[in-house]
């Protein structure tokens, strides 16, 4: 398996996991009704769908423009990073125990890793080989 196939397989897996988490949250919490309750679910589903599309499609047609999979992956990872940092900072300001602070630190660390992965996909070949981000 080439490096490109490995990266794309991981992106598809991450997208599927993100969508599955949103579905499990709906089962655990119930169907969201208020607009503020829908945002976390939509965030997970839309970013997961972007990652799944990046992992499965070489190019994504968007109207008259075709976008390569690395750019679609960068958008999905950036969306996950923004959402994770928002939840992390929100938890940081409302935490009343060491457990809450640990949750905030974990969410912010995940946001940092996701942002770095988004930059890697966007720039294509800073830490990984450039061949891993070739669009055919």
Mean pLDDT: 89
Characterize the biggest β-sheet: 2 strands, antiparallel
Number of strands: 2
Spatial strand order of the main sheet: 1-2
Proportion of residues in helical segments = over 70%
State the low-pLDDT regions, or none.
Answer: none
So how many helices? 4
Taking all Cα atoms into account, the compactness measure Rg is 16 Å
Spatial gap, N to C terminus: 17 Å
Structural class from helices and strands?
A: mainly alpha
Keywords: Membrane, Transmembrane, Transmembrane helix
Transmembrane segments: 12-32, 38-57, 69-92, 98-119
Pfam families: DUF7994 (PF25957)
InterPro entries: DUF7994
Topology readout:
Elements (H helix, E strand, L loop, with lengths): L2 H27 L5 H22 L2 E4 L2 E4 H26 L3 H26 L13
Antiparallel strand pairs: 1-2
Helix pairs in contact: 1-2, 2-3, 3-4
Provide a descriptive summary of the structure in words.
The longest helix is centred in the N-terminal third of the chain and has 27 residues, at 3-29. This protein is globular. The protein is mainly alpha-helical. β1 and β2 (65-68) form a beta hairpin. The mean pLDDT is 89. It has a two-stranded antiparallel sheet with strand order 1-2. The relative contact order is 0.14. α2 (35-56) runs antiparallel to α3. It has one domain (3-128). It is 74% helix and 6% strand. The protein is built from four helices and two strands.
Question: How do you describe this structure in short?
Answer:
Keywords: Membrane, Transmembrane, Transmembrane helix. This protein is mainly alpha-helical.
């Amino acid at each position: 398996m080439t490096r490109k196939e490995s990266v794309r397989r991981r992106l598809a897996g991450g997208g599927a996991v993100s969508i599955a988490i949103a579905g499990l949250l709906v089962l655990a919490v119930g169907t969201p009704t208020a607009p503020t309750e829908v945002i976390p679910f939509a965030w997970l589903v839309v970013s997961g769908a972007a990652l799944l599309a990046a992992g499965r499609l070489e190019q994504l047609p968007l109207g008259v423009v075709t976008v390569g999979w690395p750019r679609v992956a960068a958008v999905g990872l950036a969306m996950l990073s923004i959402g994770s940092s928002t939840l992390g900072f929100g938890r940081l300001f409302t935490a009343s125990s060491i457990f809450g602070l640990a949750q905030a630190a974990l969410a912010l660390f995940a946001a940092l890793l996701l942002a770095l992965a988004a930059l890697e996909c966007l720039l294509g070949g800073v830490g990984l080989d450039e061949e891993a981000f070739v669009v055919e």
